[in-house]
Amino acid sequence: MAAAILQHLMGDRVRVASAGVRAGQPDPYAVAVLDEIGIDISEHEPVGLDSIEGEVFDLVVTLSPEAHHHGVELTRVMPADVEYWPTPDATAVAEDVSREELLARYRGVRDTLFRRIKQRFVKTGGGPSV
């Protein structure tokens, strides 16, 4: 969600790549809550960190402790800054949670990421700036 939000806010002013600790399937809840705010990730194919090996970044933002460990490891071969933004895992819920409760958790993560990304990357008053 974070990469899609950043790309949505900044357009072609930044190059954004998204990778998870493990590759997986598209998350229908993430698709749904981003669609609510006009961001379409329905065609996004989640990839693992190994898919971005060899690429160079100025900044790596990690959202979980495990991802942060991998982000720090990347700095051994790439001169990048790493920022850790602790983010709740919306998928880590009890099995008896309703669809609406699960969507509410995803919306909370989405909204928190949106605010954090705007604070970090979008300057007000003079237009977007990195």
Summarize the model shown.
With 130 residues, this protein is mainly alpha-helical. It has helices at 2-10, 28-35, 65-74, 99-121, and strands at 59-62, 81-84. The longest helix has 23 residues, at 99-121.
Question: Can you tell me about this structure?
Answer:
The structure is a single chain. The protein is mainly alpha-helical and 130 residues long. Strands 1-2 form a two-stranded parallel ribbon. Strand 1, helix 3 and strand 2 form a beta-alpha-beta unit. It is globular, with a radius of gyration of 15 Å. The chain starts with a helix and ends in a 9-residue tail after the last helix. The C terminus is likely disordered.
Strand content: 5-15%
Stretches with pLDDT under 50, minimum 5 residues:
125-130
Strand count, sense and barrel status of the largest sheet are: 2 strands, parallel
Principal-axis shape equals: globular
- According to DSSP, the number of beta strands is 2
| Strand line-up of the largest beta sheet | 1-2
User: Which class do the helix and strand fractions yield?
Assistant: mainly alpha
Order of helices and strands: HHEHEH
**Tally of contiguous helical segments:** 4
**What does the average pLDDT come to?**
88
Whole-angstrom Rg: 15 Å
Note the gap between the termini: 19 Å
Please estimate the helix content: 25-40%
